[in-house]
Amino acid sequence: MDRNVLILNGPNLNLLGKRQPEIYGYETLADVEDACRKVGGEFGLDCELRQSNHEGELVDWIHEAREEAAGIIINPGAYSHTSVAILDALKAFEGPVIEVHVSNIHKRESFRHHSYVSLRADGVIAGCGIEGYSLAMRRLGSLVK
Ligand code: CA2
Predict the structure, then answer these.
(1) What are the C-alpha distances in Å from 43 to residues 2, 19, 112, 139, 141?
(2) For position 1, what pLDDT does the model report?
(3) Which of the chain's termini has less CB crowding within 10 Å, N or C?
Protein backbone atom coordinates (compact mmCIF):
# COMPACT_ATOMS: atom_id res chain seq x y z
CA MET A 1 0.00 0.00 0.00
CA ASP A 2 2.75 2.42 1.05
CA ARG A 3 4.45 2.34 -2.36
CA ASN A 4 1.52 1.67 -4.66
CA VAL A 5 0.07 4.26 -7.06
CA LEU A 6 -3.34 3.79 -8.65
CA ILE A 7 -3.68 5.32 -12.14
CA LEU A 8 -7.37 5.77 -12.92
CA ASN A 9 -8.82 6.60 -16.32
CA GLY A 10 -12.38 7.57 -17.11
CA PRO A 11 -14.74 7.10 -20.04
CA ASN A 12 -13.50 6.56 -23.58
CA LEU A 13 -9.84 6.56 -22.58
CA ASN A 14 -9.72 2.88 -23.59
CA LEU A 15 -9.73 4.36 -27.14
CA LEU A 16 -6.44 6.16 -26.54
CA GLY A 17 -4.09 5.52 -29.47
CA LYS A 18 -6.93 4.01 -31.50
CA ARG A 19 -9.06 7.03 -32.53
CA GLN A 20 -8.58 10.83 -32.90
CA PRO A 21 -4.74 10.72 -32.83
CA GLU A 22 -4.67 14.42 -33.80
CA ILE A 23 -5.99 15.20 -30.28
CA TYR A 24 -4.88 12.24 -28.16
CA GLY A 25 -1.80 10.90 -29.98
CA TYR A 26 -0.89 7.36 -31.03
CA GLU A 27 -0.02 5.79 -27.70
CA THR A 28 -2.29 3.47 -25.77
CA LEU A 29 -3.05 2.97 -22.07
CA ALA A 30 -0.66 -0.02 -22.16
CA ASP A 31 2.08 2.42 -23.21
CA VAL A 32 1.04 4.73 -20.34
CA GLU A 33 1.36 1.88 -17.83
CA ASP A 34 4.81 0.90 -19.16
CA ALA A 35 6.04 4.51 -18.96
CA CYS A 36 4.70 4.94 -15.41
CA ARG A 37 6.28 1.68 -14.25
CA LYS A 38 9.62 2.90 -15.56
CA VAL A 39 9.39 6.22 -13.66
CA GLY A 40 7.98 4.44 -10.61
CA GLY A 41 11.08 2.23 -10.57
CA GLU A 42 13.24 5.32 -10.04
CA PHE A 43 11.30 6.15 -6.89
CA GLY A 44 10.59 2.66 -5.58
CA LEU A 45 6.91 3.07 -6.48
CA ASP A 46 4.74 0.37 -7.97
CA CYS A 47 1.67 1.22 -10.05
CA GLU A 48 -1.54 -0.22 -11.35
CA LEU A 49 -3.55 1.30 -14.20
CA ARG A 50 -7.33 0.88 -14.51
CA GLN A 51 -9.91 2.31 -16.91
CA SER A 52 -13.68 2.41 -16.65
CA ASN A 53 -16.52 3.92 -18.63
CA HIS A 54 -18.69 3.91 -15.47
CA GLU A 55 -18.70 6.67 -12.88
CA GLY A 56 -19.69 4.38 -9.97
CA GLU A 57 -16.87 1.95 -10.74
CA LEU A 58 -14.35 4.80 -10.61
CA VAL A 59 -15.86 5.88 -7.26
CA ASP A 60 -15.52 2.29 -5.93
CA TRP A 61 -11.88 2.13 -7.01
CA ILE A 62 -11.13 5.45 -5.28
CA HIS A 63 -12.67 4.00 -2.09
CA GLU A 64 -10.47 0.89 -2.44
CA ALA A 65 -7.44 3.14 -2.86
CA ARG A 66 -7.99 4.36 0.74
CA GLU A 67 -6.60 0.97 1.86
CA GLU A 68 -4.42 0.07 -1.10
CA ALA A 69 -2.66 3.13 -2.55
CA ALA A 70 -0.25 5.79 -1.40
CA GLY A 71 -1.29 8.14 -4.20
CA ILE A 72 -3.69 8.47 -7.13
CA ILE A 73 -3.15 9.70 -10.67
CA ILE A 74 -6.50 10.30 -12.32
CA ASN A 75 -7.63 11.26 -15.78
CA PRO A 76 -11.38 11.38 -15.19
CA GLY A 77 -12.08 12.06 -18.88
CA ALA A 78 -15.41 13.81 -19.41
CA TYR A 79 -16.36 13.14 -15.76
CA SER A 80 -13.83 15.85 -14.85
CA HIS A 81 -16.38 18.38 -16.00
CA THR A 82 -19.50 16.81 -14.44
CA SER A 83 -18.79 14.52 -11.51
CA VAL A 84 -19.33 15.73 -7.96
CA ALA A 85 -19.37 12.00 -6.99
CA ILE A 86 -15.75 11.52 -8.10
CA LEU A 87 -14.76 14.77 -6.37
CA ASP A 88 -16.39 13.60 -3.11
CA ALA A 89 -14.71 10.18 -3.31
CA LEU A 90 -11.31 11.82 -3.84
CA LYS A 91 -11.93 14.09 -0.85
CA ALA A 92 -12.19 10.92 1.27
CA PHE A 93 -8.76 9.74 0.04
CA GLU A 94 -5.95 11.04 2.21
CA GLY A 95 -2.90 10.69 -0.05
CA PRO A 96 -1.77 12.94 -2.89
CA VAL A 97 -3.88 13.16 -6.05
CA ILE A 98 -2.56 14.33 -9.42
CA GLU A 99 -5.07 15.06 -12.20
CA VAL A 100 -3.89 14.45 -15.77
CA HIS A 101 -5.41 15.46 -19.11
CA VAL A 102 -3.76 14.32 -22.31
CA SER A 103 -5.07 17.35 -24.21
CA ASN A 104 -4.91 20.97 -23.08
CA ILE A 105 -8.48 21.32 -21.84
CA HIS A 106 -8.05 25.11 -21.62
CA LYS A 107 -7.42 25.34 -25.36
CA ARG A 108 -10.62 23.42 -26.15
CA GLU A 109 -14.38 24.04 -25.78
CA SER A 110 -15.31 26.19 -22.77
CA PHE A 111 -17.24 23.32 -21.12
CA ARG A 112 -13.89 21.53 -20.69
CA HIS A 113 -12.28 24.46 -18.87
CA HIS A 114 -13.80 23.61 -15.49
CA SER A 115 -12.89 20.42 -13.63
CA TYR A 116 -14.56 19.39 -10.36
CA VAL A 117 -11.61 17.08 -9.70
CA SER A 118 -9.23 20.07 -9.73
CA LEU A 119 -10.91 21.25 -6.50
CA ARG A 120 -9.23 18.27 -4.78
CA ALA A 121 -6.16 17.61 -6.93
CA ASP A 122 -2.76 18.49 -5.47
CA GLY A 123 -1.46 19.00 -9.00
CA VAL A 124 -2.94 19.25 -12.49
CA ILE A 125 -1.14 18.42 -15.75
CA ALA A 126 -2.83 19.16 -19.08
CA GLY A 127 -1.69 19.22 -22.69
CA CYS A 128 1.51 17.19 -22.30
CA GLY A 129 0.14 14.15 -24.12
CA ILE A 130 0.62 10.82 -22.40
CA GLU A 131 3.91 12.13 -21.00
CA GLY A 132 1.63 13.86 -18.47
CA TYR A 133 1.18 10.54 -16.67
CA SER A 134 4.95 10.06 -16.29
CA LEU A 135 5.28 13.63 -15.03
CA ALA A 136 2.51 12.92 -12.52
CA MET A 137 4.32 9.75 -11.41
CA ARG A 138 7.50 11.75 -10.92
CA ARG A 139 5.60 14.29 -8.82
CA LEU A 140 4.12 11.50 -6.68
CA GLY A 141 7.67 10.19 -6.26
CA SER A 142 8.49 13.48 -4.53
CA LEU A 143 5.27 13.64 -2.53
CA VAL A 144 5.16 10.02 -1.29
CA LYS A 145 8.10 9.65 1.06
O1 CA2 B 1 -7.56 15.44 -22.46
C2 CA2 B 1 -7.98 14.54 -21.73
O3 CA2 B 1 -7.25 13.68 -21.24
C4 CA2 B 1 -9.47 14.46 -21.45
O5 CA2 B 1 -9.63 14.07 -20.08
C6 CA2 B 1 -10.01 13.39 -22.36
C7 CA2 B 1 -11.52 13.25 -22.32
C8 CA2 B 1 -12.21 14.60 -22.48
O9 CA2 B 1 -13.60 14.45 -22.30
C10 CA2 B 1 -11.67 15.61 -21.49
O11 CA2 B 1 -12.31 16.85 -21.72
C12 CA2 B 1 -10.19 15.78 -21.65
C13 CA2 B 1 -12.01 12.35 -23.45
C14 CA2 B 1 -11.34 11.03 -23.50
C15 CA2 B 1 -11.66 10.44 -24.83
O16 CA2 B 1 -10.53 9.72 -25.22
C17 CA2 B 1 -10.50 9.33 -26.51
C18 CA2 B 1 -9.28 8.88 -26.94
C19 CA2 B 1 -9.14 8.51 -28.23
C20 CA2 B 1 -10.22 8.55 -29.09
C21 CA2 B 1 -11.43 9.00 -28.65
C22 CA2 B 1 -11.57 9.39 -27.35
Answers:
(1) 12, 33, 33, 10, 5
(2) 65
(3) C
101 given a catalytic annotation: yes
Mean pLDDT by 10 residues, the chain (145 residues): 93 94 92 98 97 98 97 98 98 98 97 98 97 98 93
- pTM of the predicted model as reported, rounded to 2 decimal places: 0.97
In this structure, the residue with its CA closest to atom 6 of ligand 1 is: 77
Rounded to the nearest whole angstrom, what is the distance from the C-alpha of residue 145 to the centroid of ligand 1? 31
Give the domain range for residue 65.
Answer: 4-144
Q: Is the CB of 104 under 6 A from ligand 1?
A: no
Is the minimum distance from the CB of 93 to ligand 1 under 6 angstroms?
no
pLDDT reported for residue 57: 98
Say how many domains are in the chain: 1
What are the residues facing 41 on neighbouring strands?
A: none
**Best of 7, 8, 9, 12 for a ligand 1 pocket test (most atoms within 8 Å of beta carbon):** 12
Nearest CA to ligand 1 atom 7: 77
Domain of 76, CATH number, reads: 3.40.50.9100
